[in-house]
Amino acid sequence: MTIAHHTLEVIGTIHSPYRQKFAIPRQPGLVTAATATIELHGAYAHPDCVRGLAEFSHIWVLFLFHQTIAGGWKPLVRPPRLGGDVKKGVFASRATYRPNGIGMSVLQLKQIESDSDGTRIIVQGADLVDGTPIIDIKPYLPYSDALPMATGGYADSRPQTELTTRFSDVAQAQLAQFAPAYPQLAELIDQVLRQDPRPAYKRSDLKNKTYGMNLFDLNIKWQVIGTENHVISITKDF
Length: 238
Ligand code: SAM
What we know:
Blueprint: E1 12-15, E2 35-40, E3 58-64, E4 76-77, E5 88-89, E6 102-115, E7 118-124, E8 133-139, H1 142-145, E9 164-167, H2 169-178, H3 185-194, E10 210-215, E11 218-225, E12 228-235
Parallel strand pairs: 9-12
Antiparallel strand pairs: 1-2, 1-8, 2-7, 3-6, 3-8, 4-5, 6-7, 10-11, 11-12
Bound molecules: S-adenosylmethionine (SAM).
S-adenosylmethionine binds at residues 21, 24-28, 65-68, 94, 96, 103-105, 127-129, 132.
């Protein structure tokens, strides 16, 4: 029997600090200060569904690229890793525009909570936008999934930038103001900005440009001066 179509069911939703796609790290584990919560839905929230899962340090999370899925897919994509001007096959990439729009991330499992409100899985290092629909969760198996001899083609090593982060006096005062609600905020902003979220193909023509990104309900504005991310302000204004 062959199956040409199959309907997937969403089993949960992730709540992450990333309120829009811009500035989200391009793979999991790059921004460890990002904590997110997977809220399981309906029958999938029964504690039986996660029995034994807490024994694992990491999980595979499969999800839908719901913000780009309507855009379909093309055989060739331009991986940002290659500066955006080299084309690779969609199946040689981790692009969001792909057949079926399925994403997969290995995330560190911090905690599982089950109570009368349902079941929540707390994870670290996600690269998923807030509200992403989750379609499956599986334990990460080091004996099989970690392959020290594997090679990574055009993305063989962890992306490196030389960027450092400096908070203006105003931003430092705002960090202190938001610290009770977001204790890891400075670390989160630093780790996100060190990934250099600016579009690769435009970096050279965008000197002195002020960028903005949203984390939680905060708007962060910064400029890149030389190799320094200069955080100008952190406000609740969006
Ligand atoms: N680790 C996953 C994978 O390999 O399948 C995702 C890799 S993909 C290159 C990561 C990017 O997907 C993020 O930087 C963000 O811009 C984008 N993204 C995250 N959640 C998304 C969503 N729900 N819909 C569309 N794009 C999303």
